[in-house]
Design a protein that fits this description.
By secondary structure, the protein is α+β, with helices and mostly antiparallel strands. The chain has one domain. Helix content is 23%, strand content 23%. The protein contains four helices and eight strands, in the order H-E-E-E-E-E-H-E-E-E-H-H. Strands 1, 2, 3, 4, 5, 6, 7 and 8 form an eight-stranded mixed β-sheet that branches.
């Protein structure tokens, strides 16, 4: 399934507004700003999902929204209590890296966030295409190199494994893809979805759209699906 960036942004806004429409969090999400996304990559380089900051008068949180259909849902998780600050985390990772590098080592020129043992996250610091370190988010421990595991061997709690290539239950991925694609079709059937503001969550604007998340007749009777609250370490 190939989805344009515009359609992805619409999915993000619709799912977050649908979450707000449930009323489970009162007015906490009303008027919240949908920030710029942080891409989260699989160990072998495929973008799995985006972590999107949510900010409001009494809110500093984030939501995880799938990019790869193998994630299974569109809205994967949300955390309305912990701020997500990509720049600050990269700065902390660079500072931690400086304690491990030998004198004269190359300095990192870019960083990216890796789901090295989903849902655990790490910051990968690179110089060109060379990985200098993969540091677990928050603890800043060095994640060991990827190892070969025996057939049917489950990965340990703290090791590299690819969600897409080394999933412990690979047969589930096809089911997850079907679930994701079904949800996307529901969203694409919603009349007026292109009129929804993509940078904020507002009850009034969302109320003008089809009844996403409430089992209405329009829009395929979509329902809100969430992975529940995330945690600050992914």
């Amino acid at each position: 399934m190939v989805i344009t960036d515009d359609e992805h942004r619409i999915r993000v806004a619709l799912e977050l507004n649908a979450l707000h429409a449930t009323g489970a969090f009162g007015d906490l999400l009303e008027g919240a700003q949908i920030g710029s996304e942080t891409p989260i990559y699989d160990l072998h380089g495929t973008k799995l999902y985006e972590r999107i900051p949510l900010t409001g008068e009494s809110l500093a949180g984030y939501a995880d929204v799938a990019v790869d259909p193998a994630m299974g849902a569109v809205l994967l998780a949300f955390d309305l209590e912990h701020k997500w600050d990509e720049a600050s985390l990269v700065k902390q990772a660079r500072r931690a890296l400086s304690r491990h590098l030998a004198p004269g080592s190359r300095d990192p020129d870019h960083a990216r966030f890796i789901a090295f043992s989903y849902p655990k996250l790490a910051v990968q610091l690179l110089a060109g295409d060379e990985e200098l370190a993969l540091l677990e988010l928050g603890s800043w421990r060095t994640v060991p190199p990827e190892r070969e595991r025996a057939p049917n061997e489950m990965p340990s709690f703290f090791e590299r494994w690819s969600y897409l290539d080394n999933h412990p239950y690979p047969e589930q991925l096809s089911v997850k893809r079907q679930t994701f694609e079904a949800r996307v079709r529901e969203i694409e059937a919603i009349p007026g979805r292109h009129r929804l503001a993509l940078d904020r969550i507002t009850r009034a604007e969302f109320a003008n759209l089809a009844n996403l998340g409430r089992g209405g007749d329009e829009g395929g009777g979509g329902s809100v699906r969430s992975g529940g609250r995330g945690t600050g370490d992914g």
